[in-house]
Prior knowledge:
Number of domains: 5
Catalytic activity: tRNA(Glu) + L-glutamate + ATP = L-glutamyl-tRNA(Glu) + AMP + diphosphate
Number of helices: 19
Pfam families: Anticodon_2, tRNA-synt_1c
Largest sheet: 3 strands, parallel
GO molecular function: glutamate-tRNA ligase activity
Low-confidence stretches: none
Structural class: alpha/beta
Keywords: Aminoacyl-tRNA synthetase, ATP-binding, Cytoplasm, Ligase, Nucleotide-binding, Protein biosynthesis
CATH topology of the largest domain: Rossmann fold
CATH superfamily of the largest domain: HUPs
Helix content: 40-55%
CATH architecture of the largest domain: 3-Layer(aba) Sandwich
Mean pLDDT: 94
Subunit structure: Monomer.
Distance between the termini: 73 Å
Strand content: 5-15%
Strand order of the largest sheet: 1-2-3
Shape: elongated
Radius of gyration: 32 Å
Amino acid sequence: MSVTVRFAPSPTGQIHIGNARPALFNYLFALKAGGRFILRFDDTDTARSRREFAEQIETDLRWLGIEPDLVVRQSDRFPSYESAVGKLKEAGLLYPCYETAEELDRRRKVRLSRRLPPVYGREALKLDEEERARLEAEGRRPHWRFLLPNFDADPLSSQRTEIHWEDVVRGPQTVDLASMSDPVLVREDGTFLYTLPSVVDDIELGVTHIIRGDDHVTNTGAQIALFKALGAEAPAFGHHNQLTTTTGEGLSKRSGALSIAGLREAGIEPMAVASLAVLIGTSEAVTACRDMAALAARFDPASSSRSPAKFDPVELQALSRSLIHAMPFEEAAPRLDKLGISGPKAEAFWNAVRGNIEVLEEAADWWRVVTEGPPETAALSDEDRAFVRTAFELLPPEPWGSESWHEWTDRVKAQTGRKGRALFKPLRLALTGRESGPELADLLPLLDREKILARQP
């Protein structure tokens, strides 16, 4: 069977760089194996799920370079979940419980006070038909729990029951089902919690590997048991460390912190985001990969650390900057064209300015400087203004090439006696309106004599 993976976000907000980590882990895993990547929207929470968030997630993934082979929405698959519920009930593996949240909390506190694990004691299994009817007559509606196979004959006497798997990321793993509460699969209102739809979908879509954050390690034991209860072999599992801020705080879709959309709008390069999201917290050095193929070559899920991966947004900006500074014109050209940068001078212009910009969109500012001149008249002292006027009178004849700047400044130096900063700074201010920027030797051939003389202060 070919490798099939899935990324299963809930469309309840914008995804952030922390969400990009499992998306990219799964995509690269499938890419290296020649397998399939499924985007599955876990949108059974109809009160919070929004179609616009789902559309934004698809846009964000495409921007990162992830193209799903299949897109699935759980909201379209309720009949499959109802069928699984019926199967589990018929097998006696899904049972009704009537406790309120307050009652469950009280029982947990009692167990903790007795130094017992705070797991559900299966009290609902002790109810007979008459007691259940009485509770329902009082207006209570049951939620439904999956009966974990952690007992011999009597479910009220659980015993250590180990579930083992070879984790794609963490190696050999063991979970004791006796340390867990029977998971709730169906709420009082009949809606489904995450676990049941997830397992049903993984079975029916042929998912072979589930790679996700390490906050799901404990859940895996119960999910493996549910796969078996539904007559299926469990996929392989992998649990990677999660991204946090430098202070150790988790990221939230609701806060919008470091959202993919926000990073895109800020001009961060997509491969900077992908490279950081994949390589940080692993044994690999965090450097920017030019494309997904290069990143896939460095991707090894087993290289992930057990500790949370802390990152600094400043590092993200540095990676993005390094990609822009090394970006060949052929790659930048379509984006430059959208900024109005085109024509016979576009390539020379890009090679001149790319090393001096933080985000690609800043190239448009330099293009205006080259084609229109500085936005404002340079603020020069009287002495510098006189110097610049003299310098402009010494401009060499056109056409200008790579040596024209040095020819010009040598003339100016000989005529005025100025050199170093006293020579170059006023000329730069007069030509560009800025104190720093691309090499003027590279910019001068992009200008013409008439436009330069028009900039004379």
